[in-house]
């Protein structure tokens, strides 16, 4: 019973955080701007068929976890639809986190696969984090901690498409043990 209450509590927090984000000013342009400034991401804006952007994805869990985010899908700079991201996970996890996510589609086939009904990432796709995460160190000389939130601090390796898609994540805050995108489910609704 406690586990059910905890799960409901986590989903309520995730839902409210995404709702408050939607109630605020449009953050899509700002989020796209953050990603476009990262050296590892710039080439994808020039070459991709399209992309989906999620300004804020809230994620939290204690054994049972979940994530939720609302986004938009673009082709040639034009909005083609809205999308939602949902993930439920069970296993060792602890904490909460907020991040932005962008998914690039290499070609029309990848785009069509994404907008198909109930698209889901499998475990073989991974995200490139374009910011350095919080870090802590304990040694005989004392404790240190720090964080970096600039887009230029991460993603030094060359990134390519996997199964026609490339995913980048920008950490907004929080700390959570477990950062994967496998199992994320997406729904899509066309914009008229």
Structural shape = globular
Largest sheet: 6 strands, mixed
What is the average of the pLDDT values? 75
Rg over alpha carbons: 17 Å
The count of β-strands is: 8
Number of domains: 1
- Helix share of residues? 10-25%
Terminal-residue CA separation: 44 Å
* SSE series: HHHEEHEEEEEE
Question: Class by helix and strand content?
Answer: alpha+beta
Contiguous uncertain segments of 5+ residues: 19-25, 132-157
Compute the number of helices.
4
Instruction: Give the percentage of residues in beta strands.
Output: over 45%
List the helices and strands and how they pair.
Elements: H1 2-23, H2 28-36, H3 42-47, E1 50-75, E2 78-105, H4 108-115, E3 119-120, E4 127-129, E5 135-139, E6 142-146, E7 165-177, E8 185-190
Can you describe this structure?
Helix content is 23%, strand content 46%. The chain is of the alpha+beta class. It has one domain (2-190). The strands form two sheets. Strands 1, 2, 3, 4, 7 and 8 form a six-stranded mixed beta sheet that branches.
Provide key terms for this protein:
192 residues, alpha+beta, two-stranded antiparallel sheet, 4 helices, 46% strand
């Amino acid at each position: 019973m406690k586990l059910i209450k905890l799960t409901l509590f986590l989903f309520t927090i995730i839902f409210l955080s995404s709702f408050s984000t939607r109630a605020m000013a449009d953050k899509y342009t700002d989020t796209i701007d953050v990603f476009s400034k990262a050296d590892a991401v710039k080439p994808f804006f020039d070459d991709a068929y399209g992309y989906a952007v999620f300004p804020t994805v809230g994620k939290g869990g204690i054994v049972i976890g979940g994530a939720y985010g609302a986004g938009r899908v673009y082709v040639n700079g034009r909005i083609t639809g809205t999308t939602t991201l949902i993930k439920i996970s069970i296993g060792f996890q602890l904490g909460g986190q907020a991040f932005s996510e962008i998914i690039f589609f290499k070609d029309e086939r990848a785009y069509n696969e994404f907008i198909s009904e109930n698209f889901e990432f499998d475990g073989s796709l991974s995200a490139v984090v374009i910011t350095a995460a919080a870090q802590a160190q304990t040694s005989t000389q004392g404790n240190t901690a720090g964080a970096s939130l600039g887009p230029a601090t991460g993603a030094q390796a060359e990134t390519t498409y996997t199964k026609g898609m490339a995913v980048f994540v920008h950490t907004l805050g929080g700390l959570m043990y477990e950062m994967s995108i496998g199992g994320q489910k997406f729904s899509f609704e066309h914009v008229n």
